[in-house]
Structures are given as C-alpha cells and as structure tokens.
C-alpha cells in the first residue's frame, strides 16, 4: 500500500526488530548532489559512461575525466545532511548504499557496504594500484591550468561530473607507478559489483526475520544491483518498506510504500526508535 505523508508517520514494521537499509541518490539531494531519477528531472545529454566506453580509447577517457574533474570539486565539498546523520544514529544491522559520494562514511555510519565503491578513490587498470582522488585532482589542475575557470558555468550531474561537450583538450594524467590508465574506483555500468560485497549484503538480508525489515530510502531501484535485495527479502517473507519521491521498480513488492522526503523520514524514524 502507498501512504501519503505530509506529516511523517513511521510504519509499524520499522518500530521494532532489526533493520537493513538500502539507500540511493535521493538521500544525497539535500546535500546538493542531483538525482537522475527524481520527480520532474531536467533533460540531460546522457547517462553515466559505461565501462566499455571508458576503456574504448583516449577520447572517451578525456570526455569522462574532463567532466568529472569539474564535478569533483563540487561533490567532494558536499557535507552529510540530517538524513545521513539520522542513519548513522540508527546504526542498522547493515547499511547498503548505491551512492559513491562517501557521505554515509562522513556522517559516521559504521556497518556499511558501499555497493558501487567510492568516488574518492582511484585505481590503475594495469597495476591495480589505488590512490587518492584528491591527489589526482591536484595533478589535473597542474596539467590543465585555467580549465575550471573556463567551464565554471557547467551544470552538475548526479554521478560527480558536469554537462560538457568540449573535452578534446583535456590532459588526462596516467598512473604514476606504471603509466597505466586511471579509473575512479567505482562500479561503472557494464561492470559487476565485486562478489564479496554482494554476499555480505545477502548475508545481512538473509539474517532478517518477519519481525525485522528491509528499508529502501531514496532509490528508484532501477538497477538490479539494489533491486535484488528487495526481491530476496520479499521471498523470505521479510517486510519491505520503500521511501521515495516517485515510483520505484520495487513498488509491487513493498509491504509499505511511503511518498516522503528522505531526510524528513529518517529523522522521524531515528526519533521513533530512541
């Protein structure tokens, strides 16, 4: 059933028992990071770059890094909102996030799986060395003087990049260790989530009982990486509560479907479980 909630009413299924929580991009909108699938989205020039496109050649990587370099300073400067802090206070059995922005970690969440990785980390596709995105950003500034100022008006996109067509002159640094191709250490479309990460989430969902609940907050569940946990919980008879602005792929499986803002709802939930 769907519940309209101009005033937040916490469903009974969430007032007791253990919680596993799955979060999506809708939770970070109050931190200034836009959401691809929120209600009334503005037209954009395309979705996220796929892994296959990223590895297809230098031009694709120029396009990715030229846009991402500009978006990084904005996403990297975002702060956790009250919803992130409420979830940290709730300290669920496991917090599964589809977001790569690192805001749950910054808010103090402890039992966490960043399903798609973290945009603050970089990996070399050749030697697999990992390094800091902040350090790479410093190298990019040096290699592309004045680039940020020229493109200051570019519009932010949800995945940490901006709307920008002209990236042909952007200089992309290579791995300092081996000269290989650098990629953010996140799961692109066309890549698989590491199996160990998925299994940890399955184990947490499998440990829930009908007296517990899976809570989905701020996700349209469009991609299977998150939706599979809803299906898993439903098959086991575990209540599923979905809180989102707009329809989701899991609506037909939800025990309760709540149309509410993420921050407001999580704040009310944390208060109800004190």
Task: Report a brief summary of the structure.
This protein has 274 residues and is α/β, with parallel strands linked by helices. It has helices at residues 51-54, 58-75, 82-90, 103-107, 133-143, 147-150, 195-206, 224-235, 262-272; strands at 2-4, 19-23, 94-97, 112-114, 117-124, 130-132, 182-186, 213-217, 240-243, 256-259.
List keywords for this structure.
single chain, 274 residues, alpha/beta, Rossmann fold, 7-stranded parallel β-sheet, 3-stranded antiparallel β-sheet, elongated
What do these coordinates show?
The protein has nine helices and ten strands. The protein has 274 residues and is of the alpha/beta class. It has one domain (2-38, 47-272): TPP-binding domain (Rossmann fold, 3-Layer(aba) Sandwich), CATH 3.40.50. The strands form two sheets. It has a seven-stranded parallel β-sheet with strand order 1-10-9-8-2-3-4, covered by helices on one side. Strands 6-5-7 form a three-stranded antiparallel β-sheet. The longest helix is centred in the first third of the chain and has 18 residues, at 58-75. Mean pLDDT is 89; it is low at 1-6 and 37-45.
